[in-house]
Amino acid sequence: MIESRPSHPSTPETVLLTGATGYIGSRLLKRLDAGSHRVRCLVRHPDALSSVESTDVEVAEGDLLRPETLPAAMRGISTAYYLVHSMASGGDFELEDRKAATDFAEAALAAGLQRIVYLGGLGNGRQLSGHLQSRREVGEILRNSGVPTIEFRASVVIGSGSLSFEMIRALVEKLPVMLTPKWVHTQCQPIAVDDVLDYLVNALDLPSSVSDHGQVFEIGGPDRASYRDLMLEYARQRGLKRMLISVPLLSPRLSSLWLNLFTPVYAQIGRKLVESLRNETVVVDESALESFPIRPRSMADALRRALVNEETGNPKATARSDTDKASQTTS
Length: 331
Ligand SMILES: NC(=O)c1ccc[n+]([C@@H]2O[C@H](COP(=O)([O-])OP(=O)(O)OC[C@H]3O[C@@H](n4cnc5c(N)ncnc54)[C@H](OP(=O)(O)O)[C@@H]3O)[C@@H](O)[C@H]2O)c1
Hints:
single chain, alpha/beta, two-stranded parallel sheet, 42% helix, globular, binds NADP nicotinamide-adenine-dinucleotide phosphate
């Protein structure tokens, strides 16, 4: 069922946004709405968007795991954002994500979509974690759909409410001395959430010659850093003295239990994510810098921005359900 405001009937320029209740999607919705875009949000629970008052936003009730809900949501659409994953489902996320992407790809081709924009994860090396492998597989399914697909791959996204950022925050805020597993030395390439949103919005204007055959863009800030560097920079900016002592023999299972102990709100997803921390997530192909007029902020700037938004109590800039849940859980 699609709820639309009568004053603005749907037009072919309307953009379909999946994951509109999620961390990235909810912020992208604000960005698109603030620009000149009309947006149709495909959501499982329309009530979750009841606070959105814009007349340029439609809400279509749908579920990527119920393919019969897709054709109506895609009617009249030329571009769709795919910002969904099943990590929180409690089921077999790899299976669910494969099914969701396959059904979405088929429906998109049938509906005549001209472009899909997907945000997945960076990951280098052979033995990718189940999570990163699955993100990669979703990208492949969408790029092979017959609909030109732009796939962005990002490492740690820095911004209040981002899962990986909240894990780092919880650990640094709570533990003056940390016995850290081997993965704290893994290299990543953090990017500020605002820069990720810039890429996603700019993807709408990418010439079709670039996107015609589908293209992968690896995106990241200018700094490569270990998770240890990231935690120490966070501590520095917060004025916290922290000591990290490496314990290389801490097993992935113990490491996961350790994370769950100190970041309880992420217990469900964290277990699956921690496996990914052993994989390096850095940009190898820098073509995004050539194709887009975007120069991402440094890691220090991204952290400063995330923290400043909190100190100024700018809920619009920082709030997201996970952050809210975190404060409820810990209060
Ligand atoms: N956040 C990061 O740090 C980060 C870093 C790199 C890449 N990415 C990528 O960015 C994308 C979005 O991630 P996120 O962090 O924004 O995720 P998120 O906050 O966990 O949001 C996931 C979204 O997916 C929706 N969803 C899940 N299953 C669905 C289904 N069957 N049908 C329709 N909607 C469904 C959820 O809707 P409900 O509200 O109904 O649950 C929610 O809106 C993912 O592809 C992720 O790999 C994120």
